[in-house]
Amino acid sequence: MSSGMGGKPELLGRRSQAACEPAFVGREEELALFRAALSGGRCSVLYVHGPGGIGKSALLRRFAQEAAVAGWSVARVDGRTLDPSPAAFEAEAEAVLRDERAVLLVDTFERIQGLEGWLRERFLPRLPVGALVVIAGRFPPDMRWQADPGWAEALEVMSLRDLPPQHAKALMDCCGVTDELREPLLAFAGGHPLALLLGAAVALEDGGASRRWMPDRDVVATLLDQLVGEVPSNAHRHALEICAHAYMTTEDLLRAAMPEDAAAMFDWLRRLPFVESSGSGLYPHDVAREVLEADLRWRDPQGYAAMHDRIHAYLAEKVRTAADHDALSAVAALCYLHRGNASMDAPQGGYDEGEIQEDVVRAEDAGALLRLAIAAEDEVSAARAGFWVKRRPEAFRIYRRTETGEPVACHAWLRLNEPDEAECAADPVVAAAWAHARATAPLRAGEHLAVGRSWVLPGHRGNSPVMDLLQWRMIANCLRSERMAWSYLAIRRPGQDQVECLRRHDMHDIAVIRHLGDEPYTLFAHDWRAVPPQVWLERLDRAQRRDPPGAATATMGRLAVLSREEFAEAVRKALRHLSRPDALAGSPLTRSRLVAEHGERDHPARALRDLLEQAIDSLREDPRSAKFHRALDATFLHAAPTQELAAERLGLPFATYRRHLVSGIERICAQLWHRELYGADPAHSR
């Protein structure tokens, strides 16, 4: 250890303290409260709480320096090294009982939390007036502090949170982090001081670190230990991992992902210092979320995938069944699971904070909507908006700034059942959509198409809360619609990034419409019969998880969209080939919704045979169709060499047998066509 000429040797502790000095940034509000207490304020106890690594110990070191400079004596108690007993605590803090200009700093209080009641009721009342106590721990104070009128003015509670962006950047500058490294470090750690310092130390040591830097195993392990520590059981750890993976965790979601002890696990989660509560559920600190996710992905990839699938299935079902006013939050939660996929936008802070609100359009909104459309595009486009808001006001949603009520965007989701001359004449986008549908794959009985139109003020385009809400509304419409054949989206001069994003959503640009004024529009389309909602979600999910190509299921290809006549002919042919798996494998029915929803995706020919046999067998249950069942059974299931022989076996005149057979085939075609259109669930037949 070096020393100055003829001076005292430099102390190691003083050198360590000097090294820590530049790494302390921000916390002006907390320092102001402490200085006020030193200057004779009414506060006698400062209670600082926050998750591990948030900077509580660093703040207490700064408090000690401030107190020493002001001429106060300082006593320290550290819960990590103290025996959790009143006697041991009092032995460490005894000096403060005799000095009214003393500061007692209690760190890592969560380790001795059992002393909280004794401290409040027995120890602190014995301090001289003027002494100051600072308690720092992970958990907030017991409610009995605030319920006691005697502590109402004497107690000040500080919830320590992440450093704001400017202070997080200043901390990186103190560590010597380059501009290239700052972006990935801040993206990983946000404003969490320990994560920033650990990440900076590791990244700076790695001379090859760049914008692609990611935390290594040592950083993740250290942060896990600091933030989470030991958990009571594997079930508790699993609940934590679910909480880290989902956007918001409710007891219902926990029950879907881990049925055992969901209520108890939820109660445990909500008491953790790094888990916050909101009106929508629980969510962990960002760094805790990142390290829990990274650790499980590395430690148990299969377990991670299984957990993801359970949560994904629960949220997808919630999107389909939620009330309309809850649909956006349900889609936001589902999109959050795909946050690693550029196709899906995770919730943005502006949405969380309620900066923008979605609302239905009312009669008094018509004028404001037209002015918005003119400002967003032009008068020609505004005329289209005016036409539709008069004709189909229920199709519109308007988006307002919460603070002022100012409309900044509107969206129309036009659900169209058949071409209408007036609508096609008034809106070339709708005319182009109908022309494309008729030329490509026409609508079948009971189906509809939808056209999405949006008007967004320039300042809210791009990556913004408004665009998130619009995207979530369109996804909700698509996933919740019954019997939608096509969806179309018209966008004015889309950028290449936007085009690529829509293509990743399987919305393909099919036409450029140039007669809507001076600006051309591009029309994007998706066939929901060829790629149904469940398959569409699977594609996005697999892209996010980066599953190997071989993991794709049979339904990952486009389904066949057959007319009723084509479908019936395919059923007749499949019945004739019922005993030939090779011939059934070539049937277009193996690529139909009918087979895709049967569940046996890896063996579509087997699934088709099962469906046909089930359909034949179902005719036996009704006495009126039992004769049709016998004809079909003899002809296809027991494969009589000729129809004449089948009629002979049944003891029927050939003409009667043929009538029964034809009627039976018609019944099978109608039954399976109904299932093709409506699905297996009877509720879908409405």
UniProtKB/TrEMBL annotation:
<dbReference type="Pfam" id="PF13191">
    <property type="entry name" value="AAA_16"/>
</dbReference>
<protein>
    <recommendedName>
        <fullName>AAA+ ATPase domain-containing protein</fullName>
    </recommendedName>
</protein>
<feature type="domain" description="AAA+ ATPase">
    <location>
        <begin position="42"/>
        <end position="225"/>
    </location>
</feature>
<dbReference type="InterPro" id="IPR003593">
    <property type="entry name" value="AAA+_ATPase"/>
</dbReference>
<dbReference type="InterPro" id="IPR041664">
    <property type="entry name" value="AAA_16"/>
</dbReference>
<dbReference type="InterPro" id="IPR027417">
    <property type="entry name" value="P-loop_NTPase"/>
</dbReference>
